[in-house]
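# step 3/5: fold
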Amino acid sequence: MPQKGGELLHYEFWPNYNKTEHTSNESYVEPDLLLEFEYFNLLVEIKRKDVQSYRQYEGQWKNEIQAFVNGQTHGENKPLLLIALGGNTSPEAFHTPLGRIYKSSWNSLLNQICIRQEQEKPYTPAYRILHDLESAFGLYHEFRIRKWLGQISPYGITNNTSDTIRTIWKR
């Protein structure tokens, strides 16, 4: 991602692009979010969950990028990025001739929010926003905050303990 985006100039939820030349869509293309910054444009395609039935599709991303480029009237030459959030089976980013695509799962986003929150001083505005974002994930039961697992010490667990458990289990 670019280090500097500049000012947010425009945003639009579910922009509808009817110009479908060079896409596989017959009627229209509709990404979930468009953010136009001073130095780049960003499309966002969101799937509700990270499970296979809510899978992201490379063809959909390419159609959304192409439709956005088709609809540009002012000929801006800013970089175009697309974030595919949720429904990804692998995290690697890749280039298309018209833009760069970044993939993320909801759990990866939550983990990054938690990491960033730990880097902030408590009760600063950034800390509070990150805390609220973390709490928002808790509203949906698919997302659990797992920070505390890293703080549990392996008290009393040894190699003999696992052997004892196996012996008891076999009885």
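# step 4/5: annotate
The chain has a mean pLDDT of 81.
# step 5/5: archive (pending)
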